[in-house]
Amino acid sequence: MSLEPINIATLTSSTKKNTSDFNQTLPLHIANLICVRAGKAMPFTREEMSAIDKAPINAPVAVNFMGLTTDEQADRKHHGGPLKAVHQLAPATYEKINAEFSLKVRVGTLGENLTTEAVNGLPEMTESTVCIGDVFEYGDTATSTDDVDNLQLRIVQPRRPCYKINDQIGQFTKVPNIAAWVSKQGISGWYFQVVRDGMISADLPVYLIERPYPFATLEKLWQLSNSKEKYDADVIEPWLAIECLEESWKKVLAKKIRKN
């Protein structure tokens, strides 16, 4: 992702280019789950505990407002909770890390719960194709009834990479501060809020069922947040009006408004 100064025209053209394939009649089958992971808090670096090392789950697992019931977070101040209930990271992030730093970091190393694979000729779920406010349903929408409710998750914020990414990869390499590079690229994945409790397992279809803010890609949110520029209010205010966007991101964006 470019970190060059951006303007309204760039943002508009980026939206049309990156989200057009998902801007169809909903519900839309956009992907299949290929892996679900959970972890236990274990001794980590710096004499701390961490559950960043997550392993694939081979059976259905329940998800409630706090996330996967078998998943743990050691640092509950910065990880987990209703607005960080479930984390997804695109496999493309690993491809970019490995290409940039000549590494062989495997998918699943950085603590994500979900990995998906695109279907029907649609693009992969990445920061350029998903939006804040998107709601996804896991399972055939035709089977979602009063008796059988499929899990529903809503994207509410990107993940802010922390030093534990450096420590996790640093166990195998001496490359410094990959977390900062990932943050600048805006490729750290996203957090879901649970809209409706349910079960989740690998091989379930993923349906996009709501897209209230088609302009609000995570790629654009990172661009605006990382930019040193100031913007007219009409560029920023639509983001501040997104009810589900986590408040700390709104505070960052509010500081980007150009003062007259």
Q: Give me the CATH superfamily.
A: PK beta-barrel domain-like
Instruction: Write down how many β-strands occur, each being a DSSP E stretch of 2 or more residues.
Output: 13
CATH topology: M1 Pyruvate Kinase, Domain 3
- Alpha-carbon distance between the two ends: 30 Å
**CATH architecture level-2 label:** Beta Barrel
Overall number of structural domains: 1
Describe the protein's topology.
Blueprint: H1 8-19, E1 28-38, E2 42-43, E3 49-50, E4 55-56, E5 61-64, E6 67-68, E7 86-88, H2 91-101, E8 114-118, E9 135-138, E10 151-158, H3 163-170, H4 178-185, E11 190-196, E12 198-200, E13 205-210, H5 218-226, H6 233-240, H7 247-254
Characteristic key phrases:
single chain, 260 residues, three-stranded antiparallel beta sheet, 25% helix, globular
